[in-house]
Amino acid sequence: MKKILYILAFIATTFATAQTIDPLLTTEMCPNQEYTFTVSSLPGNYESITTIGEATITTTITVSSNQRSITFKGKFADVSGIQGFAVKYVVSNTILTYDFNFTKVKSFFSGYKVGSAPSQIVAPICQTTPIALNITGDQYWNTSTNPYSSFGSINSYEYIIPSGWYLNSTLSNGNNWITASGNITLTPNINTGNGSAIQYRAINDCSNAFFKGNIKYIPVSRPNPTFTISPTSLAFVCGTPQTRTFTVSTPIHYLVLFHILGLLEQIMDGYTMEVLLLKVSQLLQIQLI
Hints:
Blueprint: H1 2-18, E1 20-22, E2 35-40, E3 45-52, E4 56-57, E5 62-63, E6 70-75, E7 83-91, E8 94-102, E9 112-113, E10 121-122, E11 131-134, E12 139-142, E13 149-151, E14 156-160, E15 166-167, E16 170-171, E17 178-180, E18 183-187, E19 197-203, E20 216-221, E21 228-230, E22 247-249, E23 255-260, E24 263-269, E25 272-278, E26 282-287
Parallel strand pairs: 10-20
Antiparallel strand pairs: 1-2, 2-6, 3-7, 4-6, 5-6, 7-8, 9-12, 11-18, 12-13, 14-17, 14-19, 15-16, 15-18, 19-20, 21-22, 23-26, 24-25
């Protein structure tokens, strides 16, 4: 008796795993795109088919002459999670069901796995040197697993950048979404964008019309350029005014304005204090080249 049960269990297992579907269940699928599906090698005669999740069947079912394979067209909705088709067939007067679950439908309905992106864009005032921005490692979610698993790669994005900046060769007005890949070049203008952010969101590789990823932000900082002045100090000299030369060094070409309004020196001499107030009413302007 145990041997007979074992044989029956083996046969049932064989029936349950023999059938195949094309495209394969591991195929990455686009939402709202019609595909032709072929189910082959059914262990018994075809009985019926129903949908799983948000999948739909868009044509009538074509059944082979031996009733062991079917062909039909269908598509998936723009949602994450399991979608597919449940095929029923008859074995020894018993109706069995096999579920074909597609878990790699590209959708941002439930967000996506976030990879890496710069934490900040720093472009000192007056700097117009191009800046590379790379977003890597973003993937689609498969929400049918716990925890979620990920698949594929996200290659298309939309960006909003500060007004007057270029994304690759496209000039921004500060409000327009610009479509590009995850590897872009930003070219700042001389002074806008401080305190703002680079906004970006993933777009579906299948179509820009589908759900988009949540907007993410990369802060923009435009600090004053760094420069050095030498000498940094001068010895106090009594008597006739003397000329001193100052050197300003900076990695960025910009205009430095110096306005010397008052230089106060205090001289301590025993019990007395003499205060020397040097007033220079002139504007020094140095052009760095």
